[in-house]
């Protein structure tokens, strides 16, 4: 029986009721949402110190987030490989993928620590708006970067555990680490209960301590599996090849959204504020849809590993329908709340007016995104990362980026930017739908060998 499944659901491939899909998706959503929620708490604690420490946290946190988000292949790529082995009945092989991903996480994470320690000054200087902000950000970043290997170990742990269809334990491990950070953060920042008052640096120390706990829990889970813990260069090399394609795909997203923010700022403070609010709501929606995509990835990978491509195709259709229905419900909620929800974030009439220009684009693309995210999960589960890389880059270059820069040239404002995002999502839907219907992704077997 797949670990974490209810009694009576022994087949990890064919019998996939909605309860099982959402049983994988809901804990995965918890993992996805836990870090952003903690960051809000961290901001609130540091914000009590004043504007300068808060600005330093914002800059340092942005740099750390940009570094770590480019390496999500350690979770998504590992899930795809581990799920196939799990579907083939090879649990030890599935966990072994987690072992090698963990070694890769430690190697890459250590390299990041060294690189940032050497280059922290110039890096924060490029992002920060002044010398005082740069100094605060650099002080925070030099401590916080020691958490990079720990964050990456957590990603690898999430990857192999999702692959064996257990999304509950990773949630427990992540929440345990964040809870410890949440306790330590105000204590170390403000010097409560006789502790030293480290101010901004206390936030970084609290983060690293909490990340250490999560990493130890993930490492302990590997040790308890009693598998070979030695590094295997050949396996890590194949994982890195998958990682290359996923990193390039992630960079395409970053280029699009950074360009959108840059152009929105050219339209004035009200526009950039409105764009940021709607974008954060969009990020919330994508988190919920991504949790279903993770369930698709896990189950499709298991079906292909078991040599059942027909089951994988049925799963792809079923999960896409559920994801689309869920996205339609979200769209209905945000459509009904268009007069209320924006006012939860601001009472500024200029910002509210600008938000109105983006709001209906935001609502309209949700059902389309429901299809896109589900099929992204299907193709990720199949290990079809080269296609996803090429499709994302092409859709960004043809759809999103041209509209963003045309918006600046012709003063289209936020409607122009969000038209670009809409075109981007529609093109991606066409691409992943075509690929899914073609069936070329449904390649059976326990191993994934990405093209070089």
How are the SSEs ordered, and which strands pair?
Layout: H1 18-47, H2 51-69, H3 73-87, H4 91-127, H5 131-144, H6 148-163, H7 168-190, H8 200-224, H9 233-266, H10 269-305, H11 309-336, H12 349-381, H13 385-410, H14 413-438
Helix pairs in contact: 1-7, 1-10, 2-4, 2-5, 3-4, 3-6, 3-9, 3-10, 4-5, 4-6, 4-9, 5-8, 6-8, 7-8, 9-10, 9-13, 10-11, 10-12, 11-12, 12-14, 13-14
Subcellular location: Membrane
Membrane topology: Multi-pass membrane protein
Organism: Rhodococcus triatomae
Short description:
With 452 residues, this protein is mainly α. It has 2 domains: 214 residues, no CATH class; 190 residues, no CATH class.
Describe the structure using short key phrases.
single chain, 452 residues, mainly alpha, 2 domains, globular
Structure description:
The structure is a single chain. With 452 residues, the chain is an all-alpha fold. It has 2 domains: 18-231, no CATH class; 249-438, no CATH class. Helices cover 80% and strands 0% of the residues. Helix 10 packs parallel to helix 12 (349-381). It is globular and about 55 Å long. The two termini are 35 Å apart.
């Amino acid at each position: 029986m797949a670990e974490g499944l209810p009694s009576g659901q022994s087949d990890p491939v064919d019998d996939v009721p909605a309860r099982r899909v959402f049983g994988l998706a809901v804990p995965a959503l918890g993992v996805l949402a836990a870090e952003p929620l903690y960051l809000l708490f961290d901001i609130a604690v540091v914000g009590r110190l004043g504007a300068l420490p808060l600005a330093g946290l914002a800059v340092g946190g942005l740099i750390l987030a940009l570094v770590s988000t480019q390496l999500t292949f350690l979770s998504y790529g590992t899930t795809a490989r581990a799920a196939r082995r799990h579907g083939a009945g090879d649990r030890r092989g599935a966990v072994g993928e987690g072992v090698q991903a963990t070694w890769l996480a430690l190697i890459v994470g250590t390299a990041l620590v060294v690189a940032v320690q050497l280059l922290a000054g110039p890096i924060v200087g490029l992002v920060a708006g002044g010398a005082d902000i740069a100094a605060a950000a650099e002080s925070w970043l030099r401590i916080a970067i020691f958490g990079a290997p720990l964050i990456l170990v957590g990603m690898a742990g999430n990857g192999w555990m999702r692959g064996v269809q257990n999304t509950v334990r990773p949630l427990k491990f992540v929440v345990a680490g964040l809870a410890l950070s949440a306790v330590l953060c105000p204590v170390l920042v403000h010097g409560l209960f006789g502790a030293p008052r480290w101010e901004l640096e206390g936030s970084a120390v609290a983060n690293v301590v909490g990340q250490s706990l999560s990493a130890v829990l993930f490492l302990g889970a590997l040790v308890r599996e009693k598998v070979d813990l030695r590094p295997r260069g050949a396996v890590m090399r194949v994982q890195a090849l998958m990682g290359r394609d996923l990193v390039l795909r992630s960079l395409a997203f970053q280029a699009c959204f950074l360009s959108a923010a840059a152009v929105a700022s050219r339209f004035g403070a009200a526009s950039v504020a409105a764009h940021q609010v709607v974008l954060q709501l969009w990020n919330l929606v994508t988190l919920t849809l991504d949790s279903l995509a993770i369930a698709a990835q896990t189950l499709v990978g298991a079906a292909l590993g078991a040599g059942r491509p027909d089951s994988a195709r049925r799963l792809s259709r079923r999960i896409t329908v559920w994801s689309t229905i869920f996205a339609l419900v979200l769209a209905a909620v945000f459509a009904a709340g268009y007069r209320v929800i924006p006012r939860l974030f601001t009472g500024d009439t200029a910002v509210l007016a600008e938000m109105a220009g983006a709001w209906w684009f935001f609502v309209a693309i949700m059902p389309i995104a429901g299809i896109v995210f589900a099929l992204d999960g299907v193709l990720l589960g199949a290990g079809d990362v080269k296609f996803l890389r090429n499709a994302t880059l092409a859709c960004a270059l043809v759809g999103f980026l041209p509209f963003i820069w045309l918006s600046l040239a012709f003063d289209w404002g936020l409607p122009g930017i969000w038209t670009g995002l809409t075109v981007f999502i529609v093109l991606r839907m066409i691409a992943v739908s075509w690929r899914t219907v073609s069936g070329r992704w449904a390649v059976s077997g326990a191993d994934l060998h990405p093209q070089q």
